[in-house]
Amino acid sequence: MEKLMEISHVSYSYHSMQGETPALSNINFTVHKGDFLAIVGPSGCGKSTLLSLLAGLIEPEHGSILLYGQKLFQKTSGTIGYMLQHDHLFEWRTIEKNVLLGLEIQKKLTPVAREKVYDMLKTYGLYKFKNARPSQLSGGMRQRAALIRTLALEPELLLLDEPFSALDYQTRLTVGDDIGSIIKKEQKTAILVTHDLSEAVSLGNRILVLGKRPATIKSVVDISFPENISPLERRNLPEFKDYFNKIWKELNHDE
Amino acid sequence: MSEISLAQQKFLLTQKKHRRTVTISRMCIFLCFLGLWEGAVRLQFIDSFFFSSPSRVVLCAYNMAADHSLFGHIGITLFETITSFALVLIFALIITIILWFNKKISETMEPYLVILNSLPKSALAPLLIVWLGANYKTIIITGMSVAIFGSILSLYTSFQSVDPEKIKLIQTLGGTNYHVLTKVVLPACIPSFFSIMKVNIGLCLVGVIIGEFIASRQGLGYLIIYGSQVFKLDWVIMSIVILCLLAWGLYSLLSRLEKGYQKRMS
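Output (structure tokens, whole complex):
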């Protein structure tokens, strides 16, 4: 499979007047096209920092991040989509205007692009709400709208920063299922950061286990489930428990 | 909508009664005040030379309206207030945007703004008049001086309180600082912009009256100061009443604008 992103020897620290806090140290991994990579680790271990680095929002202090063999810099934002923890839909915009925000900023709001976004809204059941305000939508619908906003720019790599953590458990399962299927259907490569192990196992095909701060990669677990099975159905298979336990052990190993 | 339950009907009725009581009480206070004032003057408990009376105020306003001098005074005060208010809004917005874009400038300017904001601005007025002359421009600047520093500080604070995650969102969509400003910061600050406006319209009026006290031949502030010097207390009290009405009118105009915005947003 084609190499999409290559991360080698990446380290990063936060600086303040009180001193230096190392967040990541010597991170190496490769993302192939079509991967669904899940990154798990204890909270505060630097998972979000890693995503910000991959998105090109901050620069690594050491090491390099290559996208298609080229150095990552901030204006690659067309190829990389980032989904944050909260949907951050703007209340002063309608749903339609919200999902078009990225295109508007990048001045790519052509009739063709707009039509594509409308198609996505239709496919994912939001078209009839396009003139509604975000507050009129349920948590799950808002999260779907946020995903469409990200997908509108047609990114090749999707970064998901605990995008379900703000939802209640019930919604979380269905939205996770939903969004997992959408990403599969749109044939995107995705990196999901989460502290919920079952979420990682149900969505990912490879799991990176990070250690405590400063984070290093403790282990990489390959996940394989039968093809064409939804994230929700994965949870019912016997392998699910085994993977869960394996990652659980990796996380708590040597502490 | 056709079927309203009994409990709901009862609730609506209590609400209606409550509102009516409040309105009637308000009117009562107003009428009692006028009645007591007029009565006290008529029965010569207080001297109408010093205290005027509602009827004398009305008569005075009527006479001044008849010879058109009243409208000139109101007009000039209103013009100065609205001009200084508009200029405060424009300058406060521009300066705040500059401060927001450049952290070095904003940190450098902060103590100056804080000091200028806490300074009693009436102290500046005499100086401004010496420097700029006794004309309506000076009065407009006096009006601005009262409101502008506070506006900048509160606007800057509301710029700063925008959710950093929302700013991050714009960055993840490939936006620059300019996009952060136009797509997030400005729209997010519109509600606080309205409340800043509501505070400042009153402050501008204060500034304009201060200016008129010391450097004017026209306007309600002039009427008040001149009336008190020549013991024409009818003028003074009439001007104060008109100022009350002006302040109330301007404030409710802004409230209505704000309500209109909120309605459009829901």
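Chain A touches chain B at residues 55, 57, 75, 77-78, 81-82, 84-86, 88, 90-92, 101-102, 104-106, 133, 149, 153 (CB under 8 Å).
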